[in-house]
């Protein structure tokens, strides 16, 4: 089972969602309080399992409604995703992946791990 790891950084509090193998699969923004960080985790747990994927790497891609995972290519040519909540706010982002398939596997991992993941402080 995956886990949400909460950690304090110089500008506030953030979390990483880690897969069962310890790999970071998604990272949050920086929150000003631990309470708001916990709300962000709850939002990922609620939205990830029901979010559709919007593949922005193809021309004339189909726009899907929120909540959604947006898969896109960054300036370095790597594939990334961000999960947007039902209000359109970005709640987690990914690291770069070399292939679309790996990026899609990352999305599937968030959908699988987020709902049951334990929350721990680092």
Give a description of the structure.
This protein is α/β, with parallel strands linked by helices and 122 residues long. It has a single domain (3-121), classed as PH-domain like (Roll), CATH 2.30.29. The protein has two helices and eight strands. It has helices spanning 34-47, 100-113, and strands spanning 3-9, 12-18, 24-27, 52-55, 68-73, 79-84, 90-93, 118-121. Strands 3-2-1-8 form a four-stranded mixed β-sheet, covered by helices on one side. A four-stranded mixed β-sheet has the order 4-5-6-7, with helices on one face. The model has no long low-confidence stretch (mean pLDDT 96).
Nutshell version of this structure?
This protein has helices at 34-47, 100-113, and strands spanning 3-9, 12-18, 24-27, 52-55, 68-73, 79-84, 90-93, 118-121.
Key features of this structure:
single chain, 122 residues, alpha/beta, PH-domain like, 4-stranded mixed beta sheet
Layout of helices and strands:
Layout: E1 3-9, E2 12-18, E3 24-27, H1 34-47, E4 52-55, E5 68-73, E6 79-84, E7 90-93, H2 100-113, E8 118-121
Parallel strand pairs: 1-8, 4-5
Antiparallel strand pairs: 1-2, 2-3, 5-6, 6-7
Any idea how many domains? Answer: 1
Class in CATH? Answer: Mainly Beta
**How many whole angstroms does the radius of gyration measure?**
14 Å
N/C terminus separation = 17 Å
Structural class based on helices, strands and sheet pairing: alpha/beta
The CATH architecture comes to Roll
Instruction: State the CATH topology.
Output: PH-domain like
Percent helix, as a range, is 10-25%
């Amino acid at each position: 089972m995956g886990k949400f790891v909460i950690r304090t950084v110089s500008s506030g509090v953030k979390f990483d969602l880690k897969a069962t193998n310890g790999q970071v699969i998604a990272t949050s923004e920086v929150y000003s309080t631990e309470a708001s960080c916990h709300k962000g985790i709850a939002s990922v747990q609620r939205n990830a399992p029901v979010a559709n994927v919007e593949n922005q790497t193809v021309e004339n891609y189909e726009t899907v409604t929120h909540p959604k995972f947006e898969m896109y290519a960054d300036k370095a040519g790597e594939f990334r995703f961000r999960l947007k909540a039902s209000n359109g706010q970005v709640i987690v982002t990914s690291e770069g992946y070399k292939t679309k398939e790996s990026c899609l596997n990352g999305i599937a991992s968030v959908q699988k791990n987020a709902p049951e993941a334990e929350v721990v402080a680092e």
